[in-house]
Structure formats: C-alpha cells, structure tokens
Automatic annotation (TrEMBL):
The keyword RNA-binding does not apply. The lineage of its organism: Bacteria, Bacillati, Actinomycetota, Actinomycetes, Micrococcales. CDD domains: ABC_Mj1267_LivG_branched. The keyword ATP-binding applies. Keywords: ATP-binding, Nucleotide-binding, Transport. SMART domains: AAA. Residues 50-291 form the ABC transporter domain. InterPro entries: AAA+_ATPase, ABC_AA/LPS_Transport, ABC_transporter-like_ATP-bd, BCA_ABC_TP_C, P-loop_NTPase. One of its GO terms (molecular function) is ATP binding. GO terms for cellular component: plasma membrane. This is ABC transporter ATP-binding protein.
Length: 295
C-alpha cells in the first residue's frame, strides 16, 4: 500500500496495524503539526446534543460495546478512535439506529431515541455518510441531490413534481454542490467521478437532510494524501454550525478536525478529551500507539 494511503479496515484486533496506520498517515505522535486544528478556532461549544448512558451491545455473548457513556456537545466535531475491533463501528451503528442496543440509552437533544430505526433517526436530524460508496453510477450529482431533497420532504419519491418544488430542489442542490466543491461536476454521472469526489457527493447527500448531527464513517478511508487534505478542509467547512461525529483511523485527520476525541478499547471508553491530551495519555500510548512510540 502506498505510504499516503489510509486503509479501509475490515479486520480486527491488530495493534501493530494501528501503529502502522499512524505511520501511513504521515504523522507521528511527536511531530504532528496541529497548530491549526479546528479546536483552535472554535467558538464556545453548546451543551450535550447526543448522550449515551451505559450503552451496551452484545452479539451472542460477545460484548462489542460495553457500558459506553458518551457526550457529544452541540457544535462540536467529535472523533471516535481505537484499535481494530475496539467497537467503533458498532457504536456508530447504535448511534444511527442501524443496531438496537442490548442495554443502555441514547438521548438526542434531551429526547430518548434508544432503539429508533435509522429512518426515524434521520427525521430527527441524524444523517450518516457511509464508508462504502452507495451512489447510482448513471445518475448525475445533481440528480442524486434532487432525489435526496425530494425524499427529505417526507413525501417519498414522486414522478409528478411541481415546477415550483423542483425549482427549489434545483437551487438547493446547486448550493450543496457548491458547498462540497462539486459545482463543476454537477451534471456528470456519479460513476465518472473520482473516488474523493464521490465521497464529497455522499457528504452533500447527507447535508441535504439538513442534519443536526452528521455522522461520518471513515471520511478519508482509501484516499491518497491530496484527497485527505481536501476532505479535511471540506469537513471543516461543513462542520461550521453543525455537530459532527466521525470515525477515522488517520490520526492526522483526527488531530486536524476533532474538538473532542473518545478512545475506545475492547468496547469501553479508554480515554476522552482534546486530541493533544488524548495522544499523550499514557493509557492510550500503551494500548494503542505503544509500538509506534518505539520506532
Ligand atoms: N454482527 C456481529 N456479530 C458478532 N460479532 C461482531 C458483530 N459486529 C461486530 N462484532 C465484533 O465486535 C467487535 C467490535 O467490532 P467493530 O467492528 O465495532 O470494531 P471497530 O472498532 O469498528 O473495528 P475496525 O477498526 O476494525 O473497523 C469485534 O470483535 C467484532 O468482531
């Protein structure tokens, strides 16, 4: 794998691999340049938008997420990190309703949303962008957004659509494409877009839901260094005025974007705090980055 690439991880439980991911990202704990992290420019953050309490998920006796208490503050960018198999994806699925917890609660803006299915979570303003691209190759970027905007009206997809409504969708989709830097490729079929541009289109589709909470599953997975940089800038831009939770293995991305980092290990919260505090936390170094420190 080229040095600049960040892997899309499918395997589990490999600490050495995590240390390598740190290295592949081109940043080591000691020399990471975080002089311009998002956290440095932050206005003061609000109260908790999303809270979990004792959140637990077991699969046939194996506990993948174990008593997680999480607080995501309104307006923050919050990263979930941890070694392979730590429970990040499972927690992500619990937050978005793709999995129902075995026990514990999820609260969104004070409302108990535990166990609500994804479509209900979406109606409450929780949008998720997937790691695996889920676009239709033949549809243009604009068409994808018009469909997303139409379905977000809650009226489902219709073949008959009023000109007024379609005009509104066209205006909004142009704005969204502009927001993610895709205006020039608005009329290209998604299948013709480069990988990084596809991910940007998926982000625009998630934004079409006007989310209160945006969840990004490994936004830079599989990208080369140039696309990683573009994506960092893009997420910074779209995070303004929004609350974002993301999972990423690339520590440069985490350090560049996150106000708050939660480190998971074996389904539990190992450490939590601003990136610089977490990356120097001896428990995290031992559990997660230990091998890299010895290089
Ligand atoms: N549906 C399932 N059935 C059984 N075990 C599961 C299931 N989903 C996840 N697990 C197990 O739960 C643990 C946590 O998995 P999860 O995918 O949440 O970790 P992760 O931190 O996202 O890992 P990675 O970084 O490799 O994506 C792993 O040991 C995994 O094998």
């Amino acid at each position: 794998m080229p040095a600049a690439q960040v892997p899309s991880v499918a395997g589990h439980g490999d600490g050495a691999r995590c240390a390598s991911v740190w290295r592949w990202s081109g940043v080591k704990a000691a020399d990471a340049d975080h002089t311009s992290t998002r956290a440095d420019h932050r206005p003061s953050l609000g109260g908790a938008l999303l809270t979990t309490s004792g959140l637990t998920k077991s699969f046939r006796g194996f506990t993948a997420v174990n008593g997680v208490d999480l607080q995501v503050r309104e307006g923050s960018v919050h990263a979930l990190v941890g070694p392979n198999g730590a429970g990040k994806t499972t927690l992500f699925n619990l937050l978005t309703g793709f999995l129902a917890p075995s026990s514990g609660t999820v609260t969104l803006a004070g409302q108990d949303v535990t166990g609500l299915p994804p479509e209900k979570m979406a109606h409450l303003g929780v949008a998720r962008s997937f790691q695996i691209t889920s676009l239709f190759d033949q549809l243009t970027a604009t068409e994808h957004l018009e469909l997303a905007l139409q379905s977000s009206t809650g009226q489902g997809l219709k073949f008959w659509r009023s000109d007024v409504l379609m005009g509104r969708f066209a205006d909004r989709s142009a704005e969204l494409l502009e927001e993610v830097g895709l205006s020039d490729q608005a009329h290209e079929p998604a299948g013709a877009l480069a990988y990084g541009r596809k991910r940007a289109l998926e982000l625009a589709i998630a934004l079409a839901l006007e989310p209160r909470l945006l969840l990004l599953d490994e936004p830079t997975a599989g990208m080369g260094i140039e696309d990683v940089s573009r994506t960092i800038e893009l997420v910074r831009r779209v995070a303004v005025g929004r609350t974002v939770v993301f999972v990423d293995h690339n520590m440069h991305v985490v350090g560049s974007l996150a106000d708050q980092v939660t480190v998971l290990q074996q389904g539990r919260v190992l450490a939590e705090g601003p990136y610089d505090a977490v990356r120097t936390d001896p428990r995290v170094i031992t559990a997660y980055l230990g091998e890299e420190q010895d290089d």
